[in-house]
Amino acid sequence: MPRIVRPTAYGTPDVLTVTEVPVPRAAADTVVVEVRAAGVNPVDWKLYSGTFHAVDEDLKESAGVTASLPSLGLECAGVVTEVGSEVSGVRVGDEVIVFPVTEAYADYVTAPASSILPKPAGLGWPEAGSLLLTGTTAAHALHAVAVDAGDTVLLHGGSGGVGLMAVQLAAARGATVIATAAPRNHALLTELGATPVAYGPGLADRVRTAAPQGVDAAADFAGTEEALDVSLELVADRNRIVSLTGPDRRVEAGIKLIGYGPGQDAGTEVRAAARADLVHRAGSGTLRVVVDTVFPLAEAAQAHKAGLAGHAPGKLVLVP
Ligand SMILES: NC(=O)c1ccc[n+]([C@@H]2O[C@H](COP(=O)([O-])OP(=O)(O)OC[C@H]3O[C@@H](n4cnc5c(N)ncnc54)[C@H](OP(=O)(O)O)[C@@H]3O)[C@@H](O)[C@H]2O)c1
Is the CB of 42 under 6 A from ligand 1? Predict the structure, then answer.
């Protein structure tokens, strides 16, 4: 029987349980995909840990909050096994990337046809299954603060899933990229086109040294007090500071907040429009998906414990 991983209660990763379920059937406007890899994202454990920020009622579905206990797995890649009667352009056997979707921590997932993109042949399964949530978020963040050629942009949390995408996308636009990370990740950031800077006390001065020309824009993927303070100190225009997460006082700071919380910009259209470009870049080798660790599906709890530890460079991925 196919398996699915679900939380059986709110709590720690130990509430994750593997259950056997029938193979799902395609509705008229959906396809069924046999999952080969599913990306793990912090939103997954935030949803059942009970510590996730309040989610706007109108945006609950796109944030994955669809049931009394949340479903897990908002992205994956796999092989189409059934095609709904109203779906065109997709065939059984196609290798696809699926985002957004729900319940991708599974052997099979049902996905709306609008969430399916062809997987480039040269892209590995773990990379394909973990490209789009972070990629579209990074594209949205850079869009929100209008990063362009000639800008100097500061990216907090540059070695995380979103950060590594944003580093590469900003560098590809011709921006000068300063990215914060633990020192062990600095070589990776340099390789991807950024000037790495260690976070921690003295960060503002280290960024000034790395960018004597000044900082035009900042994006916070770390969500720390320090990242907010340093962004406010170094970037003159608050419309060019964007945050995905962090302390409540960022609301009063007058910066851009993106995501699914009340009053935040979900960026649905920007994110949807970014998907094809991200797949093209990853397929052509100009955008690298850095996969840190691949776990068997049944070890989802271990993957979440690794994610909660907070320092994996790149993506954690589940493989059925
Ligand atoms: N609003 C949205 O739409 C949206 C979408 C995606 C993600 N998010 C949120 O954005 C955040 C980042 O997501 P992600 O997928 O990139 O997470 P991730 O892959 O777990 O990356 C987190 C990174 O934070 C860095 N970090 C840890 N402590 C730090 C500190 N004190 N200062 C600076 N950096 C620090 C780590 O870097 P080192 O290993 O180098 O220490 C790590 O690589 C999460 O909170 C996630 O929930 C929001």
Answer: yes
